[in-house]
Design goal:
There is one protein chain. The protein is an alpha/beta fold and 346 residues long. It has two domains: 217 residues, Rossmann fold (3-Layer(aba) Sandwich); 112 residues, 3-Layer(aba) Sandwich (Rossmann fold), CATH 3.40.50.40. It is built from eleven helices and 16 strands. It has an eight-stranded mixed sheet with strand order 4-1-5-6-7-8-11-12, with helices on both faces. A four-stranded parallel sheet has the order 13-14-15-16, sandwiched between helices. The longest helix is centred in the N-terminal third of the chain and has 16 residues. Bound molecules: glutamic acid.
Length: 346
């Protein structure tokens, strides 16, 4: 009879000792979370150290030589500019090290799409960077963290991973950080590259690659973090029926250098809101029209005359990703035409 222990000992895709060197940078999230006692509902993210997580994945050592360090240990709802800059600095050091072939970043799923896109825009390397999280805490029945970590490492050491930039691995699917969106509050298949489809699949450590990302990022990105101690303030304002423009004025008054409107439909908003964002744009605040919908493209000069009003159309980027790109764009320029070009190219 084949026992579970024997199956685990036999390993997944590879039973040979792993020679690739993978560094795990841990930030917390549900993957490091502990469930409420006695199987009750709810959990606390960021409860376990990375060493515990690595030790909990059978045969991970057969894939690669893994070393881990804890950068922060937070739920990703608390992710912020300060942590992004700290993480990006540490990541830049790690990818430069000849002792690291690939990097895994463990992270909560709530804001993984933002952190991943930020890191993809500022990290210059051909070495694979894979973000891994989970939807169920480490102590849950059928926790998904261990298999995500295993497939994440398999993805990171796959020869086809080089030069693809920052990726996200969850529930056997590989997505580019630039494209991926969290789409469901609790489903283990929460991540989708809604406009484009996934970068590949990773099944029990076997990796199959699809098309590379054809957008500027990583080595082709003009952005960096040298000399940055903070990022320019960019606020997101959600559009809806009867949208009142007061929050637009408040954000500008509070010092926002950029605004992203999570618009209705293809980035639209009420006439009073459009009037106030136009005034903000005239005053030098860069305004990006994105969409509150889960997918699709916000086209320039479609329903809204961006040329006349001085606005930027987000193209494919959802509001959260638009905010990331706009913050980095504002570290370079506040010229609307140049920033529109960035939204077309990144
Ligand atoms: N709020 C948690 C986080 O993002 C839960 C989501 C998760 O990790 O899956 O860290």
């Amino acid at each position: 009879m084949v026992t579970l222990a024997a199956l685990l000992a036999a390993g997944g895709a590879s039973a040979a000792p792993g020679t690739s060197r993978v560094t795990v940078l841990a930030t917390g999230g549900t993957i490091a979370g502990a469930q409420a006692p006695e199987g009750g509902y709810g959990y606390k993210s960021g409860s376990f150290d990375i060493k515990d997580l690595i030790a909990a994945v059978p045969n991970l050592d057969k894939l690669a030589t893994i070393s881990g360090e804890q950068v922060v240990n937070i739920g990703s709802q608390d992710m912020n500019d300060e942590v992004w800059l700290k993480l990006a600095r540490r990541l830049a050091e790690v990818v430069k090290s000849p002792g690291t072939d690939a990097v895994i970043i463990t992270h909560g799923t709530d804001t993984m799409e933002e952190t991943g896109y930020f890191l993809d825009l500022v990290t210059k390397t051909e070495k694979p960077i894979v973000m891994v999280g989970s939807m169920r805490p480490a102590t849950a029945i059928s926790a998904d963290g261990p298999s995500n970590l295993y497939n994440g490492v398999a993805t990171a050491i796959s020869p086809g991973a080089r030069g693809r930039g920052v990726m996200v691995v969850l529930n056997d699917q590989i997505d580019y950080a630039r494209n991926v969106v969290k789409t469901n509050t609790s489903d283990v298949q929460t991540f989708h590259s809604v406009n484009r489809g996934p970068a590949g699949v990773a099944n029990t450590g076997v990796v199959t690659w699809f098309a590379p990302l054809d957008k500027k990022h990583g080595m082709t990105s003009e952005f960096g973090i040298d000399g940055l101690t903070r990022l320019p303030r960019v606020d997101i304002i959600y559009a809806h029926a009867g949208m009142n423009p007061d929050l637009i004025d408040a954000a500008v008054k509070l010092g926002a250098k950029g605004l992203v409107i999570a618009g209705v439909g293809d980035g639209n908003m009420t006439a009073p809101a459009l009037e106030r964002v136009t005034a903000a744009a005239k005053a030098g605040v860069v305004v990006v029209r994105s969409s509150r919908l889960g997918s699709g493209i916000v086209y320039r000069n479609n329903e809204v005359d961006d040329d006349k009003l001085g606005l930027v159309a987000s193209d494919e980027l959802n509001p959260a990703k638009s905010r990331v790109l706009l913050m980095l764009a504002l570290t370079r320029t506040s010229d609307v035409a140049k920033i529109q070009k960035m939204f077309d190219e990144y």
